[in-house]
Amino acid sequence: EAQPSAADVGRTVEYSFDYRRAADPFGPGGASGITQTFAFIRVIDQFNNFALIDQFDFETTAATEAFQQGSLMIEIIPAYQGRIFQYGFRSFATNFEPSGIYYDNIQFGDPVKFVLGDVNGDGVVNLSDVAPFVNLLSTGGFLPAADINMDGAVNLSDVSPFVQLLSGG
Fold it and tell me: By CB atoms within 10 Å of each CB, which of 41, 48, 147, 155 scores lowest?
């Protein structure tokens, strides 16, 4: 839990983590289509019977057996000042279906600064970023620097903007 102060208003915080499904048969089930797993941040008003002010979710149900990166980034607004930030993971399952997801490298705080398109993390966008970008596309992984159109996923929609960055556009 965290409680932002007036000095934090306007600041962006990030909740980042790695996640992967447990090996079958313990990974998320799905015969009923109801099993779901999430990472979350909740903003709670402890002065009003712990009412939920806001909630942000990152769904991890479709995780593969290889670790992937996930994150939630939110800007602290005046309504969040002095309220409780609760962060964690939750799952929903029925009929005794499995919902196993492993989480690791959990961090909450200021977001890591990155250069959009710098997929290998060397500080510049160049041809050395192509192989790691293609790897993320083929594995379904996520890295904020590779999410060129900033829609929360690394997919084919990022290819054209990535090529533009490489060409200096």
Answer: 48
Is 56 within 8 Å of 64 (Cβ atoms)? no
Task: Judge whether 19 and 68 are in contact, CB under 8 Å.
Answer: yes
From residue 99, alpha-carbon distances to 96, 103, 114, 123, 126 in Å are 9, 13, 33, 38, 40
Which DSSP state fits 163? H
Phi, psi (degrees; rounded to nearest 5) at 153: -145, 150
What residues of the chain score a pLDDT lower than 70?
1-2, 29-33, 111-113, 169
CA distance 16 to 107: 5
Count of other CB atoms within 10 angstroms of residue 96: 6
Distance, CA of 71 to CA of 63 (rounded, Å): 14
Task: Express each pLDDT in 110-141 by its tens digit.
Answer: 766 678 899 988 888 999 999 999 998 998 88
DSSP, res 103: E
